[in-house]
Each structure stands twice: as structure tokens, then as C-alpha cells.
């Protein structure tokens, strides 16, 4: 999964992972938040991204779908250089296409409050001409069904609980049939009793071999659901490996002290 | 000569004509002032100064000078450079632009106030900047400022009486016609005032309905 990062070749061949990150750096003004990240994500894998607050997890996730542009390095998605230099218009077009293939779920749901659950899910497929309206509604109905909310299609977000909102948000991001899903602490804003229903949906997706990157502070869930764990600190990937290794037998002192801190809480 | 409101029914047709033109003038101007307001608001938020600059000129002109003067400028002034508008069109243009500039200010702050996560969520599903604005940001922004925009509409309806000075047979001018014929200023001004008031009640009712509709999702 996470390899020793050969230097970027500028080429992509079919046996490659779905996401390849090479030498990724990100500055906010004078602050360097990502200091050279290398990472591979294989199709169908579940990657848990863990680390202390401020270590750069969200920033890394957001560079993948270019909600943040990058300062240096390369991100490859599905054979395409995500951060290629393009004139403004061509770049916008490139980004719109890219993002249709990458679903993202946010900590604070970011559902569209003026639209019903159904309309939240169908907005993009209809607007982007992916499906006609009838087909989009049918597909959205299936997705709402999948997240257990088939009976809430006509509800507005304000009429839903936090867990229900987040499940609608997951359905919304699945509506464009993405090849990769990014989850940024999607249960952190939820009351504890609502976490389970959202985690269950993610597990279901994992079973269906959706490729996912999950940023989480919930290490038990990370261990439970992931194929691969990446531990970040101060803008670097400190250690990565299968969950049983990273959680049971961490190699780096930083990883050990992080795990101690979290599990002692 | 005391007050005698029984005179009014014999001038009903002229008052109805006046009401008709006031409604037409206001409805069109409200529509264009809202569309223009959204347009100017979005333009004003453009990151390129060169795009914002022409709007700043228009805003300066229409906020910094009296509406009456703008009306004269558009109706009498533009003729000199070959743009000959009829009085009604000139009135619609002046009212629309004047109020669009104010609406733009209201809508612009409302757009800025929409949570950044809304824009990010829109872009993350693949919508373009413009689609995100049109389907997600602007509808929420407008819903959040419906009362303020409603006040502007009511102001517009009242200010539409100014258009009487360039000869549009709207409610104010038509009541003046009735007065010069009947020599009954008090009765007809009161009648006109009552009609403006009723129209405003209707407008307020519409605004409150729109508010209620958007309150559904709050
Ligand atoms: N838009 C921004 N402008 C300036 N600094 C930012 C911006 N976004 C993030 N940062 C900074 O970058 C660093 C990493 O932030 P990031 O949100 O990626 O951390 P995180 O690992 O997701 O933390 P958390 O667990 O709290 O979500 C922090 O110091 C943060 O203050
Ligand atoms: Mg974060």
C-alpha cells in the first residue's frame, strides 16, 4: 500500500494504485502543513488516516479532490495527474470531472438545507447530465434505501437527526458513482449514540469494495474497518501498515506515544 | 365644499388604469431589480478587479444620486445619444437599476454569509462554480434575506410614483388627472393612497409567504 516512493516518473501504468501521491507539500502562507507525503491507495482498499489534531489529515484529504491546491509534488488519480498545470478554464473542467469520480463526506455534513434528502442526492446527477430526472430519482431512492433512509426522502435536513444527515450526505456523495470515497471525521460531530449507524454504512461500503480513505479519531473503528492504517504527525507520514501491525506492534516512537495517549484517555 | 367620496366611482376607470400601470411598472421593476441584484452581487464578488470595476461605477451612480434625476437622465438624456425610450420603459429601467444596486448589496452580504462548507460540498460532487452559485449558494442567500428584499420591494412600489413626472399614466398621475377634472384633490389623493396601501399589503403578504416557505427548512 504505502511504498517506499520511487521518484515520480510522470507516467502511469495500469497496474498502478488508484491514488498515487508523491512528494506532496502544502503551505498555507508561511506555514508548511504537508512536508512531503508519499502514499499509494490500491483499488478496493480501506485506508484509515490517523494522527493528532493539526497533523495535516484533512489537508491531505482535501488536496486529493483539490479543495486545496498543492504547493509541490504530484497526486495521481486513476491514471490522471490531479494537480496538472492548466489554464483556468481547462482546470475547472478537469476538476469538475475529477470530483465526479471522488466522493467526499464532511464532518459537518454540509447538506444543502434548502433541498430535501432526495433533492440533495439528485442535484449533481441531474445538473451534470449524468442521468435524466426519473433515472436519478430511482437511483437516489436505491441509495437512500442503502443508507436506511428510504422513508426520509422528502425530509429537509433540518428535520433529520445528525446520524441521518450524515447518511444522506453519504448517499449524496455516492450519487455520481465515484471510484473513491473520502471521509473526513464524519462521526466527530455526532452524539455518541448516533455514531454506530454511520459507521455501519461505511462498513457496508467497505464490503462492496468501495475504495475509501477514512480520517478518524475513532481508532477502534479504524482498526475494525481498514486494510491499511496511515499515521501522520506534523505534516509527515510517520508510519503505515496493516491495522494489526500498526495498532498492536508499532515501530516508531511517535506512533507508540500517540497510541498510548489516545488509548489512555 | 366638504368631502365627498361619492365622486370617486365616476372616475373609477381612470383609477383602474392607473393601478394597472403601477402594478405593471412595479412588477417588472421588482423582477429586474432582483435578477439584476443577484447579477451585480455575483459580479461584485468576482476576484478580478476589472470585472468589478464597471459595477462600482453603476453602484456609485445609482446610490449616490436621486432616483428622479436618474429617471430624467434615462428618459430625456439618452435621447441625445440616440436611445429613444418610451416613458414606461425608461421608468422600468430606472427603477430596476436603482433598486438592483441596493438589492445587490443585501444579496452580496448574504452570499458571503453562506457557510463555506456549502460551496465545498457543491464542488465536491462536481458542480461548477456557476452551478454551485445558482443551485446552492444564491437560493440560500436569497432565502436568508427575504425580509430585507421585501422592504426594498415595498419601497420600489412607493417610489414608482415618481415615474408620473415623465408622463406614465400610473396611479399618481391618473389621480392627478382625476383631480384636475373634478377639483377634488383630497378625495383622490386619499383614494390613491388607499390603493398604494392595499397593493403594499398584497406585496407584504407575498413576501411573508415566501419567508414561510423558506422557514420550512430552517
Ligand atoms: N485554510 C487554512 N489556512 C491556514 N492554515 C490552515 C488552513 N487549513 C488548515 N490549516 C492549518 O494546517 C494544519 C493542519 O490542519 P488540518 O486541518 O489538515 O489538520 P487535521 O490533522 O485534519 O486536524 P484535526 O484532527 O483537528 O481535524 C493546522 O495547523 C491548521 O491550522
Ligand atoms: Mg481535520
Strand content of chain B: under 5%
Q: Indicate the mean pLDDT of chain A.
A: 92
Largest sheet of chain A: 6 strands, mixed
Low-confidence runs of at least 5 consecutive residues of chain A:
1-14
Strand order of the largest sheet of chain A: 6-7-8-3-9-10
Q: CATH superfamily assignment of the largest domain in chain A? A: P-loop containing nucleotide triphosphate hydrolases
Domain module count of chain B: 1
Strand % of chain A is 15-25%
Q: Mean pLDDT score of chain B, rounded?
A: 93
CATH A-level architecture of chain B: Orthogonal Bundle
Walk me through what this model shows.
The complex is a heterodimer of chains A (265) and B (218). Chain A has 265 residues and is of the alpha/beta class. Chain A folds into 2 domains: 2-101 and 178-264, P-loop containing nucleotide triphosphate hydrolases (Rossmann fold); 113-177, no CATH class. Chain A contains 9 helices and 10 strands. Chain A is globular, with a radius of gyration of 18 Å. The model of chain A is unreliable at 1-14 (pLDDT under 50). With 218 residues, chain B is mainly α. Chain B has one domain (5-217): MetI-like (MetI-like fold). Chain B contains 9 helices and no strands. The longest helix of chain B is centred in the N-terminal third of the chain and has 33 residues, at 12-44. Chain B is flat. The relative contact order of chain B is 0.16. The mean pLDDT of chain B is 93. The chains are: A alpha/beta (265), B mainly alpha (218). Chain A binds chain B through residues 65, 67, 92, 95-97, 99-100, 102-104, 106, 108, 110-115, 123-124, 127-128, 156-158, 169, 172-173, 175-176, and chain B through 115, 117-118, 120-129, 131, 135-136, 139-140, 143, 214, 216-218. Bound molecules: adenosine-5'-triphosphate and magnesium ion. Magnesium ion (MG) binds next to helix 1 of chain A.
Amino acid at each position: 500500500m504505502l511504498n517506499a516512493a520511487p521518484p515520480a516518473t510522470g507516467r502511469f501504468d495500469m497496474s498502478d494504485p488508484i491514488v498515487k501521491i508523491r512528494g506532496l507539500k502544502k503551505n498555507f502562507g508561511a506555514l508548511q502543513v504537508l512536508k512531503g507525503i508519499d502514499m499509494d491507495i490500491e483499488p478496493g482498499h480501506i485506508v484509515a488516516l490517523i494522527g493528532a489534531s493539526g497533523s495535516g489529515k484533512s489537508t491531505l484529504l482535501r488536496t486529493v479532490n483539490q479543495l486545496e491546491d498543492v504547493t509541490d509534488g504530484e497526486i495521481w488519480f486513476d491514471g490522471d495527474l490531479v494537480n496538472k498545470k492548466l489554464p483556468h478554464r481547462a482546470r475547472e473542467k478537469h476538476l469538475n470531472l475529477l470530483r465526479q469520480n471522488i466522493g467526499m463526506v464532511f464532518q459537518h455534513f454540509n447538506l444543502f438545507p434548502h433541498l430535501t434528502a432526495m433533492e440533495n442526492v439528485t442535484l449533481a446527477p441531474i445538473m451534470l447530465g449524468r442521468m435524466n430526472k426519473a433515472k436519478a430519482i430511482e437511483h437516489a431512492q436505491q441509495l437512500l434505501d442503502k443508507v436506511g433512509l428510504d422513508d426520509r426522502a422528502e425530509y429537509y435536513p433540518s428535520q433529520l437527526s445528525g446520524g441521518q444527515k450524515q447518511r444522506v450526505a453519504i448517499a449524496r456523495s455516492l450519487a455520481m458513482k465515484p471510484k473513491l470515497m473520502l471521509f473526513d471525521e464524519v462521526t466527530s460531530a455526532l452524539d455518541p449514540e448516533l455514531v454506530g449507524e454511520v459507521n455501519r454504512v461505511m462498513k457496508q461500503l467497505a464490503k462492496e469494495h468501495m475504495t475509501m480513505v477514512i480520517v478518524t479519531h475513532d481508532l477502534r473503528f479504524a482498526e475494525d474497518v481498514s486494510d491499511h492504517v496511515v499515521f501522520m504527525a506534523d505534516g509527515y507520514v510517520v508510519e503505515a501498515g496493516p491495522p494489526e501491525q500498526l495498532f498492536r506492534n508499532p515501530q516508531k516512537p511517535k506512533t507508540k506515544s500517540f497510541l498510548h495517549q489516545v488509548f489512555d484517555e | 365644499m366638504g368631502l365627498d367620496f361619492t365622486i370617486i366611482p365616476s372616475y373609477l376607470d381612470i383609477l383602474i388604469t392607473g393601478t394597472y400601470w403601477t402594478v405593471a411598472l412595479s412588477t417588472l421593476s421588482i423582477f429586474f431589480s432582483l435578477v439584476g441584484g443577484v447579477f451585480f452581487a455575483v459580479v461584485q464578488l468576482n476576484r478580478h478587479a476589472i470585472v468589478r470595476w464597471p459595477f462600482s461605477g453603476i453602484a456609485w451612480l445609482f446610490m449616490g444620486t436621486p432616483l428622479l434625476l436618474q429617471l430624467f437622465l434615462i428618459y430625456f438624456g439618452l435621447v441625445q445619444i440616440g436611445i429613444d425610450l418610451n416613458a414606461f420603459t425608461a421608468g422600468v429601467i430606472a427603477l430596476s437599476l436603482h433598486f438592483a444596486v441596493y438589492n445587490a448589496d443585501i444579496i452580496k452580504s448574504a452570499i458571503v454569509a453562506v457557510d463555506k462548507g456549502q460551496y465545498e460540498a457543491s464542488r465536491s460532487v462536481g458542480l461548477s462554480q456557476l452551478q454551485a452559485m445558482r443551485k446552492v449558494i444564491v437560493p440560500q442567500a436569497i432565502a436568508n434575506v427575504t425580509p430585507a428584499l421585501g422592504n426594498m420591494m415595498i419601497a420600489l412600489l412607493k417610489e414608482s410614483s415618481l415615474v408620473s413626472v415623465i408622463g406614465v399614466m400610473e396611479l399618481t398621475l391618473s389621480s392627478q388627472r382625476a383631480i384636475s377634472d373634478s377639483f377634488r384633490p383630497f378625495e383622490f389623493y386619499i383614494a390613491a393612497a388607499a390603493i398604494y396601501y392595499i397593493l403594499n399589503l398584497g406585496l407584504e403578504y407575498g413576501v411573508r409567504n415566501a419567508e414561510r416557505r423558506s422557514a420550512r427548512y430552517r
